[in-house]
Amino acid sequence: MKIAMVGSGYVGLVSGACFADFGHDVVCIDKDQSKIDLLHDGVMPIYEPGLDALVDSNVKSGRLTFTTDLAEGIKDAQAIFIAVGTPSRRGDGHADLTFVYEVAREIGESLSNDAVVVTKSTVPVGTGDEVERILADSGTAHQYAVVSNPEFLREGAAIRDFKQPDRIVIGAEDEFGRNVMREVYRPLFLNESPILFVNRRSSELIKYAANAFLATKITFINEMADLCEQVGANVQDVSRGIGMDNRIGPKFLDAGPGYGGSCFPKDTLALLKTAEDYESPVRIVEAVVAVNDSRKRAMGRKVIEALGGLDAARDKKVAMLGLTFKPNTDDMRDSPAIAVAQTLQDAGVDIAAYDPEGMEQAAPLMPGVTMCTNPYDAIEGADAVAIVTEWDAFRALDLGRVKQLAKAPILVDLRNIYQPDDVRAAGFEYTSIGRD
Ligand code: UDX
Q: What number does the ligand 1 atom closest to the CA of 153 have?
């Protein structure tokens, strides 16, 4: 089966490469010539473990190609995916659908065979209806169906998430759409990955509801962590204790500096906008967004406290370890590290930072922060060390060396990756999240 993937960003590229790996013929299309040039040269425009090898083998087998020419790329494709960005619109948080609609118009104008048009981009409820109207307005003589098929890929684990999904959600209004999508996902169907067929609006909402629910779970445990600190409880024990209840489940209960990334912040805001438009408030999600926003700066204040308060913090130096919103990505979007650094800088603190993959992306977002080539360079002469992202490389720091290099043995662990007793036994003043 031939598949066209319009948009070769994170979602488009991972999905396109995985579909090719299933045996489909895939053309990834992007209007950004430099991105397509990079891909032709075998260079990945994004960092995702395993993606380069997957792209390479499928390019070599001839099943995966790249082009900037949409009309040529969608020719003979039975499924045309729209996987372009839907950033938060400046000012109001609505998902910006300009790119989605632009692509839909181009598809309508270029369609040269019957095809299913699939929105994989995260789009608000009702977007599929508008895409359908755009295709109708194009006057195309070919049969088409518009289907919603949201992605649930986690950065850093995207290939596994694609190939072994908890579920595949398909929102289709007719048999033509459902049949083509069955064919697209047949390899996974045979693997017994559950495929859920629902109507298009339900599918569009499932994506937002899933992300909002996960953001809520994280925010809930973050507030419990604050409460733990006040009452002398341990948030990791509380997580385990509630997570063993099958109805709650153990995942997404790690307390930390607040969620970030390309999805949760943007999608929770967009859901609030939909709720507002339909006059059906989602107050829990409103609270989640507000709590998470204020948490990021609060984490900066936690580091300041560890330095001895605002007065003591001025002109001190902090080593920040980890800048990306989570490990195994170079993505800095809405990373808590940005707000932590700003709060520290507002208090007159100097920052030296290290991140295994994110420093290039971080540098323009964190002016005044000195980027170092390894953790120990950042730690040298620091008055405190703050672990902001739980990269594996920070899990087994040589604490003896840290103590020697740092000016003061103060460790603030915003991801709870160390055992308090071990770190204290090594002579550190240790602060973490939601535990003594
Ligand atoms: C998320 C969803 O998981 C994915 O299904 C969706 O398609 C896109 O958004 P991603 O943004 O890649 O994926 O990262 P994820 O692993 O979900 O983490 C999101 C944020 O939550 C990170 O900032 C992470 O540090 C934080 N988090 C996650 C916690 O603070 N605690 C947890 O227990 C889990």
A: 7
Q: Ligand 1, residues 264, 299, 387: which to mutate, most atoms within 8 A of Cβ?
A: 264
Q: For residue 345, give the nearest of 392, 395, 373, 310 by alpha carbon.
A: 310
- C-alpha to C-alpha distance for 32 and 92, rounded to whole angstroms: 27
Contact 399, 379 (CB under 8 A): no
Instruction: Return the pLDDT at 37.
Output: 97
Return the ligand 1 atom nearest residue 257 CA: 30
Domains of the chain by residue range: 2-198, 208-289, 295-431
58-to-16, 53, 62, 210 alpha-carbon distances in Å: 10, 9, 6, 31
Nearest CA to ligand 1 atom 34: 252
> Which residue CA neighbors atom 31 of ligand 1 most closely?
254
The SS3 of residue 256 is coil
Rounded distance between C-alpha atoms, residue 239 and residue 236, angstroms:
5
Please name the residue whose Cα sits nearest to atom 21 of ligand 1: 259
pLDDT confidence of residue 90: 76
Separation of 108 CA from ligand 1 center, angstroms?
Answer: 35
Q: Do domains 208-289 and 295-431 have the same CATH topology?
A: no
**For the whole prediction, is pTM greater than 0.90?**
yes
Q: Tell me, what's the pLDDT at 191?
A: 77
Three-class SS of residue 15? Answer: helix
Closest CA to 251 of 166, 319, 312: 166
Ligand 1 centroid from CA 154, angstroms: 7
- Helix, strand, or coil (residue 85): coil
Positions of the chain with pLDDT under 50: none
Q: From the alpha carbon of 155, which atom of ligand 1 is closest?
A: 12
Report the topology of domain 2-198. Answer: Rossmann fold (3.40.50)
| Ligand 1, CB within 6 Å, residue ranges | 151-155, 211, 214, 218, 252-254, 256, 259-264, 325-326
Predicted local distance difference test score (pLDDT) of residue 150: 97
Tokens linked to 16: 């396109």
Active-site annotation, residues: 263
Instruction: Domain 208-289: give its CATH code.
Output: 1.10.1040.10
Radius of gyration, CA atoms only, the chain: 24
Ligand 1 pocket mutation pick from 149, 214, 216, 217 by most atoms within 8 angstroms of CB: 214
Contact 95, 89 (CB under 8 A): yes
Q: At what angle do helices 235-243 and 200-231 cross, to 10 degrees?
A: 140
Domain covering 295-431 assigned CATH 3.40.50.720 in the classification: yes
